[in-house]
Amino acid sequence: MIAQEYILQKLNAQAKAQGLAGDSTTYKTAAQSPGAAKLLEFFKYDHLPPHLQEISRVICEAAFELADTMPSNAEATVVLRKLLEAKDCAVRAVLSP
Fold it and tell me: Cβ contacts of residue 79 below 8 Å, gap of 6+?
């Protein structure tokens, strides 16, 4: 959870510097389209049990890093959507017997 808080703080600081609202639900960076910013909300993992948080944390960090470095376009949103699908699959893989 510490890594996620760090990422959110970084994004919020960038948002405030750009004059945008900067809280955990409205963060946005210059490289994020509104669709990408909305998708990033689904990468939160603090609600998951500890054994699922670790796998989700890795993917969450990747999502925020990509959103922070990619240009704002439709393909960037697709990258995040596919990564979200991968996160869901990874969580289900851990849950499967």
Answer: 66, 70
Structure tokens at 35: 């669709």
pTM over 0.85: no
- Residue 48 is encoded by which pair of tokens? 């998951």
Sign of CA dihedral 66, 64, 69, 31: positive
Residues 57-79: tens digit of each pLDDT = 999 989 988 988 888 888 989 99
Residue 76 burial (CB count, 10 A): 20
Neighbours of 90 (CB within 10 A): 15
Q: Which two tokens stand for residue 12?
A: 């919020």
Query: What span, in angstroms and rounded, lies between the C-alpha atoms of 71 and 49?
Result: 33
H/E run at residue 46 = none
